[in-house]
Model the fold of this input.
Amino acid sequence: MPVTAVIPARFGSTRFPGKPLHLIAGQSLIERTWRRCIACPALSRVIIATDDQRIMDAAAAFGAEAVLTSPDHPSGTDRLAEAAASDPHATHFINVQGDEPLISPALIGELAARLSADPGIGMITAVHPLHDPALQHDPNVVKAVLDTRGRALYFSRSPLPYQRNAVPGLPVYRHMGLYGFSRAFLQQFVAWPPSLLELTEGLEQLRALENGAAIHCVITDHDSPGIDTPEQAAQMEATLLAATPA
Done:
């Protein structure tokens, strides 16, 4: 089944204006994310969806396909839905947030394969174990708890779950900026208005949970830190430069 990746890229981030075009070790954040996506052979197409002509121009310069979308979308998934209309042949879509410069092409492929193989999955995402106690209290790191079948119970910027008791073996997960949708579920998602929990936490996936939908989760050991602040961008640049041979 044709699977298209869409990378929503909004210029006017509150915490980090112009984030998609911020250079990290000489390459913009959006280009780094796009290059990880095009390395995934499971995708039939990769599209950058943006609200800003500057990002459109940058995408054209490094050879990416991009579409200009409305500046009024309340979430990246709403922007994805508009971009999806430009690809009527795709049956499924992967939403890769534009601030994931180290996202794993193999993980993208795993979500695409799960979506294609199981018509009962309307929405899927990825989580990885979170071991650093400091990050568990960082509101820029989104935490997730799952049920016994690997479906999301809740996502939060707060520590999750609250550990009143020390329970050996309790998993703590970080949610990754990666979603997969069937076309039908994507259309349903954007038909729902932004929910109260979504608006409170600033987490669009809560719209699905608040409307009773299931979000299937792939647990991975791949740690792909998102970039939410200029400080995190500087840390990422230092990491990449340290790993580059002299």
Q: What stands out?
A: The chain has nine helices and eleven strands. The two ends are 43 Å apart (CA to CA). The longest helix spans residues 230-243.
